[in-house]
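hey can u check if this looks right to u? its 78 residues, i copy pasted from the old doc so theres a chance i mangled smth
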Amino acid sequence: MITHGEDGGHRITVNFTWEGITRTGQPMTARTRHDWTLTDTGERYLRLKHFHVAVLDPFTPVTAEEALAHHDAAQGPS
């Protein structure tokens, strides 16, 4: 979600779904929420002014089947 501020700033909130594999081959999943405040400085891209990251679900070991189901659910309907 993007919210435009009156001061020329923009606030963006994004939820990330993480999937990974440890060095030993253990599949893992996690979820985080990122809140970014960007400001328009007149440059080509907005500049990051402030950020906050919250862990919604910490990295958790899962089976390969659970990791695939987690991935499919994050993709949404096709």
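The beta strands are 2-4, 9-21, 27-39, 47-61.
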